[in-house]
Design brief:
The protein is built from eleven helices and twelve strands. By secondary structure, the chain is an alpha/beta fold. Among the domains are: about 20-145, Rossmann fold (3-Layer(aba) Sandwich), CATH 3.40.50; about 155-200, no CATH class; about 360-385. Keywords: Membrane, Receptor, Transmembrane, Transmembrane helix.
Amino acid sequence: MSQLMKPKNAATVLHISDHNEIQKFDSKDTIIVTDLNCPDSRRFLQQADDSQLFGKPYRWLIIAKMNEFRDIPTELINMKILIDSEVIVPAKTGEVFNLNLVYRIDHTSKFRTEEFGIWTADEGLKKSANLTKTTMVIRRKDLNGKSIAASDLKVDNMAKATHCNILPLYDFMNATKALFFTDTWGNRVIHKSRTSRFNTVHNTADTNKAEVCIPRASPLFPKQLVPTALQSCCLDMYWRTGSLGRVVTFLMFLIFLFLYTSYSANIVALLQSSSNQIRTLTDLLNSKLELGVEDEKYNRHYFPAATEPVRKSIYETKIEKVGYKPNFMSLEEGVRRLQNPFCTMRGGSFASVNMVDFHPVLLWMLYGMSLSVFLLVVEILLYRRQGKMEKA
């Protein structure tokens, strides 16, 4: 490593002992070299992990003992070295140093490695061909089946939907977009001062990194939609004997159809209309409705952290009753409970589409198509029979 630290390879070499000094340098041209053989290296790495310095744009070169190829040092097992990190761990094999990039998908998953290159004293550094052809985003695109592509709506749909809804606001308000990356929606982060905060989008407003505003609603489109298709009805000029009775029967069925449609529309409008009995949280608390919450980290924090008496009572009496199982359920369980006619659920956009069984609907459509074909055949046979009887 002394060859790498020569002035021809590094413009400036500084020895630091405090992780706060890292943020003083330009992270674009800085690489942090840490020797795990030093007695204070474990504390230094833990402080850097608490300050989220393993993420982009910081680059690390962690020197451990002469481990075997692709081994992960034990000091890094509990570190949050995620997919946006660039941490190189060298392993010596003979006179060759194998440089490997290490990262993990989440805080609890196993480490994964990528071949960064090899280094020898005679030839220097040779990067891997895979690194020169593809970027880190492309190489780490498929994370054990967890695709991070924006087109996959079932993965982190809350963040994607919110991001797409907020993007037009920048143009309307002529604002500049600044992105702040967080680990999750609601994980608790403990600082060295033992004060806790929540690493969420709300923290950006608390630290004055962002401001919250409520824009005025835009006016609705005043013009009505113009019909794009016209439907015409044609009547046959040939009137058979007894057509009057058929016309009366047809009109009666048509009137009953309109009455049934109007009645069904009124029932649907009544069911979809908002109830006047529940307007406040107090009304919801005093109602006989049972409540359930989707089991997510944000909801696990939001409801227990409520301090208002009404919100706290709703959580204690309807969500987490004493002596009963808490009503935190997964999205699959919520969709399964929709089989109960008196149950309703709200989930992420398109997240429950592949969980709904459309087999009964398709079965009824098949029955209807079969019945229509059968009636058509019967009509044709009756028409031919009547024609033969008239000729006879």
